[in-house]
Amino acid sequence: MSSTFSVALSALKAQSEAIDITGNNLANMNTDGFKGSTVQFKDLFSEYLGDDTGFQLGLGVGAPINTQVFTQGGIQSSTSPMSAAIEGNGFFVVASPSNQQLYTRDGNFQISSSGALQTQTGENVQGWVATATGINTNAAPGDITLPTGTVLPPVATKNMSMNANLDATGTVGSSTGTFSVPIQVVDSLGATHILTATFTKSATPNTWTYDVTVPGGDLIGGTAGTQVSVLSTPGTLTFNNDGTMSPTNTSPVPMSITNLADGAANLNINWNLFNPDGSGMITQYDETSNLASSSQDGEQAAQLNQVALQNGGQVVASYSNGEQKVVAQLALAAIQNPDSLQNVGNNNFATTTNTATPAIGAPQTGGRGQILGNSIEGSNVDMATEFTNLIVYQSAYQASSRVITTADQITQDLLNLIH
Q1: 360: containing domain
Q2: When you count CB atoms within 10 A of the terminal residue's CB, does the N or C end of the chain come out lower?
Q3: pLDDT tens sequence across 145-159
């Protein structure tokens, strides 16, 4: 009887702590990226009484072991462009305000006033920012700072091309023997200019001449309403008898636009007549002259419209001119024994002395999972399981309390015998 009270009290304390853990799990059912805990009980060492025919007397139950469970939580769609979820193994890497490296499964991110990508509680998300040479995921990750409120500088046109057909049945000197194509190009200041490529059928079979002009009003000293050639001399296109371009045509065709009235630098543009596979981009078939498509590599200045996380953990900036640029890449950390991590609050975990060294790298490499954009990982707590645990722990608590009341009654009976 001497140890009955202590045994029962150890059980009351252990079951109470188990109920606390279950309550915490239930409290965080709607916490993004939350990982629930399980409870494990261990008995205290026993006392052996007597000789070989004696018996062992248990000393109760020890403090329950709280083990974090890192199973996958449900992934839900999100309307936030800066949210992301991890499908599979890994953790987002973040840095606390004191520069402590932490790990989280909560991908509900935001952009600070300074452009830093952060968690909702102010930790800086780690990854790699794009440079002129791209993104180097082999380098050490750092804070991700995004281009907020910036203007994308213009890029002057250097190359242009067009896919077109010239009417093989066109009549020399008539409207069917002439075809004009407008192409917009961009100068170094971001201003646009309309070049006009004019094709004229020649009396020589399978031959067309061409010229490219710019409006005179776009040039210093030019006359509005007139066209000025940007070629040193007009060119000639020759075609094979099957309507394809002859490989003897000179390509690219150099064009130069000087003395722009807006003060931009001179434009030097190459007009490419052939595809990379060597096929001609202009044909001469028995079909009305027409333009199928045209392209040029110049870009006007543009305002930043939006920054969003995409599948794979890439951060993509979208500009008002329709261009998109990858500006950063999120890092993931693979940890071999995540159950050794210490929960430090705010959905973050810190390594302990028992934690294997985190392997930080790009998603879908080295055993790391996939990052899904416009998604968020929910809690992995199961309500039915937790309610079942509550019933079990409550029953065990009540049973242990009955041990105390029974022992107390026996003690009272013993005292009554004395009196």
Answers
A1: 75-146+326-377
A2: C
A3: 987 777 888 999 999
